[in-house]
Here is the input.
Amino acid sequence: MRPVSLALPIIALTLAAGAALAADGVPGNALSFTVLRNGETVGTHVLRFQPVDDAVRISADTNVVVKMAMIPVYRFEHHGNEVWRDGRLISLMSETNDDGTRHALKVAGGGGSLAVNGDGAVSHLPADTLPASLWNRRTVARGTLLNTLDGHAMTVQVADQGDDQVAVHGRTVVARHYAMTGDLSRELWYDADGTLVQVRFKARDDSDIRYVLR
Here is the structure.
């Protein structure tokens, strides 16, 4: 029996590359978050953004270890790669170890749909479906998201909670707060530039999880 289960889910070299970054709404070269569980640091979540020709490659790395009495009781490791072009997801690949449960996902865009192979199960989603990697502010305007662990479609509802003040890099910034419910429950904060600055949710063991931009 696992005492803890977080079920964690997961941005110019030339003028053309700079245009691609802007077109895809990418916030910068990297976003690095500290993962907190009930206020205690348990890991990191890092997003890196790299222009490649006329596209943008985004890598996501999450590493979380929860310990009790210095003994690891839960481990979550996720590595994903997204490729975007003209605001559309072109491909996504990820590998996940959720405390011993492993997931593998491959997504290919093109044509009128996304071809999804998650843990060997094949499906198709509309071409404009966004992955639930959450860095893209357009996420809050969608009713269906692609699960980045196993590729299943998640139905969500999002409510605008107005502006909040959030600590970022040692200073306070104004960020728009959104509450996502449904198949994925997350509280999300984006600053005035549309950059994701904080994530908060309840884990399955009812612990409080926060991603804080550092």
DSSP finds one helix and 15 strands in the chain. Residues 15-213 form one domain. The first helix runs from residue 15 to 23.
